[in-house]
Specification:
about 525 residues, 16 helices, binds 3-acetylpyridine adenine dinucleotide, FAD/NAD(P)-binding domain
Length: about 525
């Protein structure tokens, strides 16, 4: 890996982050002739996959879909081995792409961006890192990820714990051996649901502390059939084009009929078929599951029945079967043997819905006056999603306006791409864009392509700056809220609304209006001469 001297640099654009968004932004903008400096906190590319090395970490979008689509050559040159790639394979893929495109030469690793300040006079951003770098750039592109700011909750006594503790989103690179250990896992979102069965297979004793049960669907992961891999390479470009024209951004066709419009038997058959196929396709069984509470309840009942069939202890099954939110309104999980794990004699589920963890003690955790003695604690407690990574950087725009101040009431963006008061700053998959609600790689490519075209347009027409207008931003925020209110999503206390971070303003952050619709809106804005943006 290259080492670069600390220096004051000038370049056309700084890209913050070398995950999938930063890697593609670097490639695309460099291709358009811009000089780029990327800063990355980790010591390699991969972003969220670089950090999330917990046992069982695996993508929940099928491998053939969770890859870049901008180059058929790159797609053809890579062969996935499993239906859902595990974290190490995704890192190998990131390495493959980085090598193919010779990306690392423009990335400075182990360098965390601490501030990005806009200078009104020179219309340049000054970006600084914790390694003392300082770069002046015309454009600042935030490829900081939606789920990259990991969060360990404030639990009294946490610092007194004698043993090691880990966060799933900042896992040690040389792994952790839980053999013979008593382990506590706090949290039952995707990271908990994936890691719990694998930790259970190793540990002597496992205690799972569950505040909210989540719906999980079977992944039915399997080795890739070589014939399928070859066929999918052949059809890759056409498939990707087709997927980009859908609102779900997924290959599996959504069934465009309402759950309430078919007979009970038919519905059961369809649910069963989609459950048996594995993956998120279950949630596109019908077109009203996200906006009709009754239809949603039918799908939720189906899954709750499945949980009760798998988990042998009826009381544990009841605790695991979510009833406090419509299915899908908290991010669904995909699992391998998650519910089955609770049938193991050495695994104990502790319900902390009513009685939170009182404190962490030197030897364990105490709940409801009872002490659970453990050797290690795993925090599968998630992220300050969508805004956390941006707000941990001191970002100041025109007239010294700080992003933290601007977003005190929640994030405000235009299209999730630009922010009024912050000229020439772009967010990739920012709040207000479909991002986390679709295959994020598709969302990333659409954003980066839009940004690259926008910069081309500025240069071709002699503009030096672009900034979202406040009115356009207000209208967009209103539209994003209105779209969310047409769905059941706001009913859940999810990270989509920031409910997992105490004190975070409750705002539905991603855009739920559909990928293809959103893509059309962005294209229309560009075609109309960047409507809603001021070009200077
Ligand atoms: O985080 P989460 P995650 N005391 O926020 C609990 C993506 N992802 O890392 O629900 C006790 O979902 C919290 O409880 P509650 C995916 O988009 C993808 O699991 O807030 N418990 C919850 O159970 C996913 O949605 C993949 O009541 C506390 C859990 O911790 C997103 O990342 C894999 C607590 C956090 O769940 C985040 O997933 C992994 C406290 N004080 C992640 N604070 C794949 O591609 C929090 N919790 C497969």
């Amino acid at each position: 890996m290259e080492t670069q001297a600390r220096a004051v640099m000038r370049c056309d654009a700084v890209v913050v982050g070398a995950g999938f968004a930063g890697m593609y932004a670097l490639h695309r903008l460099r291709q358009r002739g811009l000089s780029i400096q990327v800063f990355e906190a980790g010591d390699d590319v991969g972003g969220t996959w670089y950090w999330n090395r917990y046992p069982g970490a695996r993508c929940d979008v099928e491998s053939v879909e969770y890859q870049y689509g901008f180059s058929d050559e790159i797609a053809r040159g890579w062969t996935w081995t499993e239906r859902y790639a595990a974290q190490p394979e995704i890192m190998r893929y990131a390495d493959y792409v980085a090598k193919r495109l010779d990306l690392r030469k423009n990335i400075k690793f182990e360098s965390r961006v601490t501030s990005a300040i806009f200078d009104d006079e020179s219309r340049r951003w000054t970006v600084e890192t914790d390694r003392g770098d300082r770069v002046f750039a015309q454009f600042c592109i935030m490829a900081t990820g939606c789920l990259s700011a990991s969060r360990v909750p404030e639990i009294a006594g946490r610092e007194t714990f004698r043993g090691p503790s880990y966060h799933t989103g900042a896992w040690p690179h040389d792994g952790v051996d839980f053999s013979g250990k008593r382990v506590a896992v706090i949290g039952t979102g995707s990271s908990g649901v994936q890691s719990i069965p694998v930790i259970a297979a190793q540990a002597e004793r496992l205690f799972v502390f569950q505040r909210t049960p989540n719906f999980s669907l079977p992944a039915l992961n399997a080795p890739m059939d070589p014939d399928f891999v070859e066929a999918s390479k052949e059809s890759f470009a056409a498939d990707r084009k087709r997927v980009r024209a859908t609102n779900s951004g997924a290959m599996m066709a959504a069934n465009d009929e309402p759950a309430l419009g078919v007979t009970l038997e038919e519905r059961q058959r369809n649910f069963e078929a989609r459950w048996g196929r594995g993956g998120f396709a279950f949630m596109t069984s019908y077109n009203d599951l996200f906006n009709n509470i009754e239809a949603n309840r039918l799908a939720a009942d189906f899954v709750r029945d499945k949980i009760r069939k798998i988990v042998t202890n009826p009381q544990i099954a009841d605790l695991l079967a979510p009833t406090n939110h419509p299915i899908g309104t908290k991010r669904l999980c995909l699992d391998t043997n998650y519910y089955e794990t609770y049938n193991l004699p050495h695994v104990t589920l502790i319900d902390i819905t009513q009685t939170p963890i009182e404190r962490i003690t030197p030897g364990g955790l105490s709940v409801g006056g009872r002490e659970y003695a453990v050797d290690s604690i795993v925090f599968a407690t998630g992220f300050d999603a969508m805004t956390g990574a941006l707000l941990r950087i001191d970002i100041r725009g025109r007239d010294g306006l700080s992003l933290r101040e601007k977003w005190t009431g929640g994030p405000r963006t235009y299209l999730g791409l630009g922010i009024a008061g912050f000229p020439n700053l772009f967010t990739i998959t920012g709040p207000g864009s479909p991002s986390v609600l679709v295959n994020v790689i598709i969302a990333i490519e659409q954003h980066v392509d839009w940004i690259a075209d926008c910069i081309d347009h500025l240069r071709a027409n002699g503009f030096s700056a672009i900034e979202a207008q406040v009115e356009a931003e207000d209208r967009w925020v209103e539209h994003v809220n209105q779209k969310a209110d047409e769905t059941l999503y706001p009913l859940a206390n999810s990270w989509y609304v920031g409910a997992n971070v105490p004190g975070k303003p409750r705002v539905f952050m991603p855009y739920v209006g559909g990928f293809a619709n959103y893509d059309r809106i962005c294209a229309g804005v560009a075609a109309g001469g960047y409507e809603g943006f001021s070009l200077a």
